Amino acid sequence: MTAPTRLQALAQRAMQARDLWPEFSAAALQEAAALQPLPPDRVTLPGSRPPTSVALRDLRHLAWCSIDNDDSRDLDQLSVTVPGSGGAVRILVAIANVAALFGRSSAIDAHAAHNTTSVYTAAQVFSMLPEHLSTDVSVLAAGGERSAIVVELEIDTSGSVRASELYPACVINQAKLAYDSVAAWLEGRQPPPAAVSAVSGLDEQLRVQDRLAQSLLQVRHAQGALTLQTLETRVILDAGTPRELRVEQPNRAKSLIEEFMIAANTATAEFLTRHGYPSVRRVLLPPERWDRIVELAAALHESLPAEPDAAALNAFLVKRRAAEPARFADLSLSVIKLLGRGQYVVDAPGGSVSGHFGLAVSDYMHSTAPNRRFPDLLTQRLVLAAIAGVPAPYSLQELQQLAAHCTVQEDNADKVERQVAKSAAAMLLSTHIGQLFQGMVTGASAKGTWIRLTAPPVEGRIVQGYEGLDVGDQAQVRLTHTDVERGFIDFARVK
Fold this sequence. Notes:
Blueprint: H1 6-17, H2 26-33, E1 42-44, E2 53-55, E3 57-58, E4 65-68, E5 77-83, E6 89-96, H3 107-115, E7 119-120, E8 125-126, H4 131-137, E9 145-155, E10 161-172, E11 175-178, H5 179-186, H6 194-197, H7 202-222, E12 232-238, E13 241-248, H8 252-274, E14 279-283, H9 290-299, H10 310-323, H11 328-339, E15 343-347, H12 374-388, H13 396-429, E16 436-445, E17 448-453, E18 459-464, E19 474-483, E20 488-493
Parallel strand pairs: 3-10, 4-11, 18-20
Antiparallel strand pairs: 1-2, 5-6, 6-9, 7-8, 9-10, 12-13, 14-15, 16-17, 16-19, 17-18, 19-20
């Protein structure tokens, strides 16, 4: 085994510092190595007493495809559409059936329950599940028969979800596709990817999916879902050393998958409620710093109501995107910071929890990435129990403890990813001490004042001249210091 690069070593130390396990136990690796893909006709619920199994529908004939990043190996989802009744269309989203592969008493589950998420750092991916499982046995890889949980949604001509159901099925991924090439084709900039042309009818299938996704998005926006544009960056490494920060652009293919996943997550939450099972919901409360969002709007000669109002905020955002598209990502980042963080909470049968302020949905959860997130794996176990008609595999108290733990660990994982990204950025900027940069303030509190540069799009701390600055303010700064080990990038404000 080769020695880790400096950035990998930093990432591993960051994981340990945040109570995240960077390596699997020997027992977990041994368990994963012994696993095989599930049979194509029935699945047995691990740990059920007496042993309980459910039959799979045979949907191998449908033109399923996956759309993800070019280098993604932990494929969780497939999608396909079929005609519905009365002009409606049915969207089928297949989710990898991870829950039927191992039980709660396994060493694999102990690791997943502790970390609760895969951690994607610039140096290394720390998977929630062992590689043999998360990139082979459980994934919906091209060409292989796989067990899946299918979320079926009937979409009417207005773009609203008319009905939904969940059931286990056997599927085959007919084409592994990538966001950028699919988007370039849908947007008319390139011919269809070779994998699309190789499957009869897949081109029209994807155009139907694209139209449905746009309809779903329009309905959500009409309900108050926020129009936001985040500026995501990807560190490009050369022999383990950062050489470039590449901006990841939003596109039609990413929007397609996002809308299908939001619809599938909502349908899954409603399914568990209908069947009287508890669930772990994903909520985003109305922002505590709404007054600052109102101030940002006022600075742009716009007005917002005194109390949080998602529809009014979205109308403001749509207007600003049209007025200043070049600065919309900066405004979006300010709003995202002020909205606060999502959290996991338990919805008991007959209970009621808050919805998701940003997505404008009242019933929402994470369910579509069981290879990558533990709440999704919990949800899949609950769904399988509901389908089989057996008691929930978790008590309410267990779910509440796990939901709180998942919220904490998600925050820790985010901090690790940011810390490693900052170390990579510090490496890039270490030869630019004294240079002037323009940026926007992304954080201002007793803990410090933070700024994200316009170019390169990295974030650092203003250690001098930060007085009076608040989130959303523009400022010019001079780079004064970098510390690669700690991921520190320090600036002084130039007034």
